Amino acid sequence: MKIYDRQGTPNAARVRIVVAAKGLEEQVDYVKVDLVAAEQKQDWFLKLNPIGKTPVLVCEDGLVLSESPAITEYLDNLDGDPILTGRTAREKGLICMMQRRVEIMLLDPVDDYFHYGTKGLGEALRPWRMPDWPAKKDWGERRGRLAVENLPYFDGVLRERPFLAGEAFSLADISLFAGYAFAKGAGLPIAAELTALHDWWARVGEVPAVKNRSGQGF
Ligand SMILES: N[C@@H](CCC(=O)N[C@@H](CS)C(=O)NCC(=O)O)C(=O)O
After folding, report:
1. Quick one: 109 and 186 in the same domain?
2. Does position 77 have pLDDT exceeding 80, yes or no?
3. Pocket (CB within 6 angstroms of ligand 1)
4. Mutate to test the pocket of ligand 1, among 53, 57, 64, 114 (most ligand atoms within 8 A of CB)
5. What is the torsional sign of CA 75, 77, 80, 85?
6. Which of 109, 121, 158, 175 could form a disulfide with 143 if both were Cys (CB 3.0 to 4.6 A apart)?
């Protein structure tokens, strides 16, 4: 399998942690996409993903998948332990819901903040991302504030249970981990009083797939 991505970005991290957790690293070749040079907007890449974003998984049988949840769902279902997307209908529903909440409440607003509230990936992306930047700067900054305001929700959930969707580490935690790291990396504040979130961060950092990848910048 080939995965087209850019190491260190949040969605690359979501997929790379799953690859590591599932023991699939030997089966994957990573192909670097230069996001700063806008390679993801070139024709060859748009044929893989018309949305022009990474990561993209290309399998030997010709299957091409984009969107991190689709890629991670596929990888998780390739074989057995650990199962990151849930075993029962109840677990699957909860994990899917929590992962969507992470996307809507954290990953998407931080992404908007990064690309519009700051200089984001820079000049080469301006034709696609920022034709009306800095007019959108206010909106980008508001999206950043929204992400920060949403963090106590996740802290509240993690006061009730050790992991985001229940008793076990799941894809929802991997997405929250990426969202938390993205928020921090983009310079958004994560309040000290969110102690359950900080404890969870330390706990997830000890999960072998996360711990082993963190030294490699995910
Ligand atoms: N919904 C997509 C989001 C993908 C995404 O935003 N990828 C970022 C890297 S983390 C990207 O390629 N950004 C480049 C751009 O926006 O042009 C997913 O789940 O994979």
Report:
1. yes
2. yes
3. 9-11, 35, 40, 52-54, 67-68, 111, 125
4. 53
5. positive
6. 109
Q: Which atom of ligand 1 lies nearest, measured to the CA of 38?
A: 17
Domain count within the chain = 2
Last residue of a domain, one of 76, 99, 119: 76
Establish if 12 belongs to a structural domain: yes
- Taking CA 145 as the corner, what is the angle to CA 102 and CA 154, rounded to the nearest 5 degrees? 30
pLDDT digits (tens, 9 = 90+) for 35-44: 999 999 999 9
Whether 17 contacts 177, CB under 8 Å: yes
Instruction: State whether 167 and 96 are in the same domain.
Output: yes
Q: Is 38 left (phi over 0), alpha (psi -120 to 50) or beta?
A: left
CA 73 from chain centre, in angstroms, equals 13
Q: How confident is the model at residue 131 (pLDDT cuts 50, 70, 90)?
A: low
**Are 132 and 197 in the same domain?**
yes
Between the CA of 206 and the centroid of ligand 1 the distance, in Å, is 26
